[in-house]
Amino acid sequence: MASKLVINNIIKRSFSSTSALNRQINSVTVIGSGLMGSGIAQVTAEAGYSVYLVDQNDTALNKALKTIETSLTRSTKKKFNKEPDHAVRYIKDTMDRIVTTTKVDAGAEKSDLIIEAIVENIQAKHDLFSKLDKISPNTTIFTSNTSSLPIAEIAEAVSRKDKFGGLHFFNPVPVMKLLEVIKTHETSDATYRTLLEYGLSIGKTTVECKDTPGFIVNRLLVPYMFEAVKMYERGDASFQDIDTAMKLGAGYPMGPFELIDYVGLDTTKFIVDGWKKRFPEDPTFQSSVVIDQLVAEGRLGRKSGEGFYNYKK
Ligand SMILES: C[C@H](O)CC(=O)SCCNC(=O)CCNC(=O)[C@H](O)C(C)(C)COP(=O)(O)OP(=O)(O)OC[C@H]1O[C@@H](n2cnc3c(N)ncnc32)[C@H](O)[C@@H]1OP(=O)(O)O
Ligand SMILES: NC(=O)c1ccc[n+]([C@@H]2O[C@H](COP(=O)([O-])OP(=O)(O)OC[C@H]3O[C@@H](n4cnc5c(N)ncnc54)[C@H](O)[C@@H]3O)[C@@H](O)[C@H]2O)c1
After folding, report:
1. What residues does the 3-hydroxyacyl-CoA dehydrogenase C-terminal domain cover (predicted)?
2. 249 lines ligand 1 (CB under 6 A)
3. 7 with 43, same domain?
4. Is 87 domain-assigned?
């Protein structure tokens, strides 16, 4: 344990600059260009890596490019307050480093690191990784941004288990400073070190966690969100008042319902349904009638324009 800490401190010291490139990695493929994939592609390109961003169709990719440009415009306004020309150049340089494609092999054949951020479904992830394992160079490191699935279970689809780890980002990726870096019992030390270095090179603070359900943050955050939903379902308080209470009484930046809308109701449902199936005896993991109903209606939160709240203008 102590030697691990020493290695991490050395890595952290040598990557104090957010623009320092990771020597092991030049090109990164991000698969899935939704809420998370677009943010991961953005911060990776901002750190100087060349990025392939992959999704199933051009509509999703164009939406992602628009999201990234809006986010960069927002962040550069403050960063280059007195130098608007620098902001324009910074945005252009970052966007130029991102190549979008619907063909997964375009990036996979060339990338040193693949970050998967597709739907939270084990079969979909297995199908993708088994394909990637065949087309990627055997030096390429594979990672998943899963919220709740065991990394080792996702890695069952590949033969390079020593080059498979977890990189769990937080939404919104450009703003949230944390990156959970997950090592399975088969991830090699060299792979893990490269993942920590990548995290620091994009300016994130890394924490280590075993390959346990929800890692650190979600194991604490998701039960809290569902406890709030149960409180609302019992009729103890309105969801608006629960949000107000947690923001003003506990200092949270968002209330639990705002946060569920922000994460996505479909993703939140996938997380808890998966845990409920895996741990049927644990009362912490119970699905919610209200969330099931909203997902069935297509009210997935901010990304669909409506969840608990309405975001349509
Ligand atoms: C489930 C998964 O597996 C794990 C997860 O991701 S769980 C979810 C984790 N995320 C959270 O808990 C988010 C909680 N919410 C928050 O921290 C804040 O509400 C928030 C950062 C999203 C927005 O902050 P808020 O103060 O309400 O709004 P706003 O003033 O618009 O934004 C604050 C700053 O962030 C910036 N920002 C917000 N969203 C941004 C984005 N998408 N891109 C770039 N910058 C952004 C703003 O420009 C602003 O920057 P400034 O302070 O330099 O001017
Ligand atoms: N939403 C969050 O707050 C959050 C935070 C951390 C981690 N995660 C995890 O990140 C992953 C993505 O979540 P999200 O919120 O970005 O979802 P999302 O629904 O916003 O985006 C998923 C994207 O993946 C694409 N996709 C699906 N299957 C694909 C495939 N086979 N090939 C290429 N693209 C494919 C979809 O078209 C969609 O654009 C999930 O595993 C989720 O659990 C989510």
Report:
1. 214-311
2. no
3. yes
4. yes
* C-alpha 288, offset from chain centre: 24
In terms of domains, do 187 and 234 share one? no
- Regarding pTM above 0.95, the answer is no
Does any domain span residue 134? yes
Cβ(219) – ligand 1 distance below 6 Å: no
Give dist(CA 193, CA 135) in Å, integer.
24
The residue among 262, 290, 300, 54 whose CA lies nearest residue 171 is: 262
* Range of the structural domain that residue 80 is part of: 2-209
Q: Which residues of the chain have pLDDT under 70?
A: 1-23
Same-domain check for residues 33 and 154? yes
Q: What is the pLDDT of residue 163?
A: 98
Count of structural domains, the chain: 2
According to the model, what pLDDT value does residue 19 have?
44
Question: Omega of the bond prior to 137 within 30 degrees of 0, cis?
Answer: no
Enumerate residues lining ligand 2, CB below 6 A.
31-37, 54-56, 60, 117-120, 124, 128, 145-147, 169, 171, 263-264, 267, 303
Cα distances (Å, whole numbers) of residue 88 to 11, 84, 91, 94, 194: 32, 6, 5, 10, 32
96: left (phi over 0), alpha (psi -120 to 50) or beta: alpha
CATH code assigned at 102: 3.40.50.720
* 80 and 228 fall within a common domain: no
Domain membership of residue 113 (yes or no) is yes
Give the whole-angstrom CA distance, residue 79 versus residue 281: 50
268-311 pLDDT per residue, tens: 999 999 999 999 999 888 889 999 999 999 999 999 999 999 99
Question: CA dihedral in degrees (260, 263, 268, 274; nearest 10)?
Answer: -150
DSSP code string of 257-297: HHHHHHH-HHHHHHHHHHHHHH-TT-TT----HHHHHHHHT
User: Is 291 domain-assigned?
Assistant: yes
